């Protein structure tokens, strides 16, 4: 019987496995995604508090070494009329990126894409003796018994097996099956006009923008959103705000020029 089964290997589940390993407690992590996708745009900022956790595990410098944008590059957030348009206002020292040497935090935050963080966590855990990474498996049922928890997992072929553990932790995101098994209910719903997250390549955009900022908030009502660099080599993230719901079906990989 495993001491702990972590259901979900996103940043929270993988971080929990790191913390358990740090305390010498073994675990198994169940995660359907066999690999980390670079075009799954989510977190771009790792907070100072998270970097402090990483520091405790001896992991903060490894994240900074993999981050394509050094923390010293910029801590600015700009509000503007277009990504390469007129600046309306600018804030510096945002997102905890300027906290190096500050009494408030042992580590500053770090601009680094979530896929980079997830891959670094996977790599670090791959070398941990008491962690089993079960990629390609999905939890399909969780049952609490007198002596522990039974977690039913299915592999890609649909074959189901059972893992017994003293504890199971739900880190399986917004549609958590663990939440359902506990009888907890998700309240609320999606926004009527959701945001659309995009990762794109453009060398031209970089040549049009002369200043440095980690976020560019575009106030233009015709195309509102946020855009920022994922690296210093022409890869960008953008969040188009208030898009119509049918954007959801957009081709995830589209090409639109240089
Ligand atoms: C556009 C956007 C921008 C964001 N920007 C930031 C930011 O800058 N900074 C920040 O800190 N946060 C940011 N976030 C939030 C951040 O992405 C989430 O807080 C984070 O992903 C939550 O991690 P998690 O591990 O709890 O959940 P998830 O990342 O959702 O991971 C859950 C995992 O569980 C797995 N799973 C699902 N069902 C099962 C199952 N049945 N069995 C086993 N595994 C299962 C999934 O495959 C997934 O890997 C952003 C989010 C979005 C969408």
Automatic annotation (TrEMBL):
GO MF term set: FAD binding; oxidoreductase activity, acting on paired donors, with incorporation or reduction of molecular oxygen, NAD(P)H as one donor, and incorporation of one atom of oxygen
Ranges of residues in domain FAD-binding: 2-249
Keyword field: FAD, Flavoprotein
Cofactor field: FAD
Name of protein: FAD-dependent oxidoreductase
Species in which this protein is naturally found: Trebonia kvetii
